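User: Sequence for ABC transporter ATP-binding protein below. Tokens please.
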Amino acid sequence: MNNDPIISIRGVSKTYAGGFQALKNINLDIKRGEIFALLGANGAGKTTLIGVICGIVNASAGTIIADGHDTVRDYRAVRAAIGLVPQELHTDAFESVWATVSFSRGLFGKPPNPAYVEKVLRDLSLWDKRDAKIMSLSGGMKRRVLIAKALAHEPTILFLDEPSAGVDVELRHDMWRMVRELRANGTTIILTTHYIEEAEDMADRIGVINKGELIIVEDKAVLMRKLGKKQLMLTLRQPMSEIPSELGAWALTLTEDGERLVYSFDTQEEETGIAVLLRRLSEHGIDFKDLSSSESSLEDIFVSLVHQSQGTQS
Ligand SMILES: Nc1ncnc2c1ncn2[C@@H]1O[C@H](COP(=O)(O)OP(=O)(O)OP(=O)(O)O)[C@@H](O)[C@H]1O
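Assistant: Structure tokens for ABC transporter ATP-binding protein:
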């Protein structure tokens, strides 16, 4: 197994013609065969970064090696290794699904392979629509065609730019299933998303980009363990109007209805303090009838990361 990164990004910056700096000194390695999710708010620079890797956008500085090729010098070789599912479909309105997907394959110099194209169309539930013109398809079907086109030349790296934007649950699940299958077959997948649950569900690693800077790259599980918080929720037997002052030192909040006490604690800490807290509550005659705990989601972590990074910038 080749352990070299499949994509290696070094010192990449991008300043657009108007002077706007969309990417600031990005350094990132993508591992062969992983699912990497790039998270960021609108305008953070995700699409620009994908564009630079695919050779569609020229970097102002830095170098990128993708599948062993320099993305500027060996542009064609890089494009042949990459499948890109863009956010929108622009062309081919009058073509049939079959012709469009087969044509995409030919564009990259691959010999025709009807059996492979058929498999892609079947996997995406497009087989029944193979003779339909693109313009006659629903929005969701068009998205499926975009994915089929990107897969037509059997790329080793697949980029999905906001794959879930505006698609229904069924397509989203079909897509996730396909992405997992592709990964199992050795394809490296990089996706950008606003749907944090998508990253939480799918990704092996996560990168967060904020105002053109890559502020964190981390294994998803590590990220969630490192930055995650847990909460213990106690449903009180008797609602209270405020937290007793004797408990002021604890990280407690009271829900508005006064019926639940919420204790936040760090998953990293060896001592969570739960046992002591429960003893204190009982000493103060605070009784509860139910208790549950929950972990912060990737979304909570993402929001706090972006806040922190904005705090350090200002
Ligand atoms: N061709 C361009 N010329 C000038 N500025 C651009 C150009 N393309 C993008 N930008 C700017 O660069 C920044 C990053 O844009 P980009 O599309 O990479 O963000 P994004 O993270 O993909 O956002 P979204 O989630 O909205 O798709 C934005 O402020 C955008 O306005």
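The chain has a mean pLDDT of 87.
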